[in-house]
Amino acid sequence: MFNIYGLVAPVFTPLDEDGEIKFDVIPIYAKYLAKENITGVLVGGTTGEFASFNTQERKELVDAWLKVARPLNLKVIVQVGGASLPDVIKMAQHAEERKVDAIMTLPELYFRPKTAEHLVSYLEVVSKAAPSLPLLYYHFPMMTGVNLNVAEFFTLACRRIPNFMGLKADLHDATQLADQLKCGKLTYIANHMLGPSALMGHDSSIATVNNIFPSLVKDIVRLTKCGEVDKAKKLQDKLNSMVNGISCNGDFVPCMKAAMEVVTGIKVGPPRMPQTPLNEPHKKRVEDILKMYKY
Predict the structure, then answer these.
(1) Structural domains present in the chain
(2) What Pfam families does the entry give (predicted)?
């Protein structure tokens, strides 16, 4: 039964200055998310820098999160895609063996699918490697270059993949799927535009801001759903300003990692190459933005 609703955090991968994974940070991180009433975590997403890790490291991250998430009642979704198909299958099989709560996958990233039929055929192969787990699709055309008609894709995937449960996408794509979200299927909103999304009926999200500003995000969604739209808009404007002020200092993940440390004190560290950490002046600008908004 698929029951992962609400706010899911696409978790950062804690790293030291040499780019090695700091597994000892994960229990602290998980307790923080549980205390903030986050529903679950996505391990191995863009925020988690999946493309910078080999398959063994990704499996170890899954195991580390499962160990701490289960006692805290945090759901665990594992992003298995982004590698060659044999490695994607290995990741899906590992998730099946570990009985995670769901898997998510990207499309093939080099020999990209050109049609909904090709994409669904690819997802069928992945789903068969983890047949007992709900399958979600990670729709991120800005990074993947795969930008198909999502309504056509969704219809075909629902018809052909028994464990297909939905996708992660932006509000524009979620709106196109509104009349197809039946039988527990849903769209997770992928960015920080959570007030407008909740207003359109999409109140589940897998967004980086769920890590850093969980209370603010929850207030935006709650106020929107109970009709206090003016109050929600003020908070959404605040969130927009903070995200814009933070992200203008460099690439998205390094900027957000810096903000995560300032706001929460959790040492998620620098990104792994090929991404580079913020220099000191840009870190200071991130701190100043957050201080201005009392974070």
Answers:
(1) 7-228 (3.20.20.70)
(2) DHDPS
